[in-house]
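Support request from a user on the community tier.

User writes: "When I paste my structure tokens into the form, the page sometimes reloads and wipes my input. The last time it worked, I copied everything first. Here is what I submitted, just in case something in the input itself triggers the reload:"
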């Protein structure tokens, strides 16, 4: 489901966090994650591409989704899974990024 090659220990660590997060979340969060990645509530894509972003730190750190290509920009500055999961959940549950039809 995830297409990328980790080239160093920071990338391997956060890629592991992403895989664990996807595996551990409930169906409601998984639906939000699919919408965040692709713009659709359904699993309408075969894979997620990941770009590693080492320069996003502090308040600027966040996962960025490119819905047209199902690509995530994933910061490598997360040091623990709990930190990664908490920030990712906050992004998914915030609702300000949702793309709804009017």
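"...and here is what came back when it finally went through:"
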């Amino acid at each position: 489901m995830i297409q990328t090659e980790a080239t160093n220990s920071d990338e391997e660590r956060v890629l592991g966090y992403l895989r664990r997060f996807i595996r551990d979340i409930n169906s409601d969060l998984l639906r939000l994650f699919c919408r965040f990645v692709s713009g659709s509530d359904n699993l309408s894509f075969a894979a997620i591409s990941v770009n590693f972003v080492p320069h996003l730190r502090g308040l600027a750190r966040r996962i960025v989704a490119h819905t047209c290509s199902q690509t995530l920009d994933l910061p490598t500055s997360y040091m623990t899974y709990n930190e990664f999961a908490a920030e990712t959940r906050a992004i998914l549950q915030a609702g300000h990024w949702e793309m709804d039809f009017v």
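Agent notes: The reload is a front-end session timeout and is unrelated to the input. The chain has one domain: 2-94. Residues 2-94 form a domain with the Hect, E3 ligase catalytic fold fold (CATH 3.30.2410.10). Escalated to web team.
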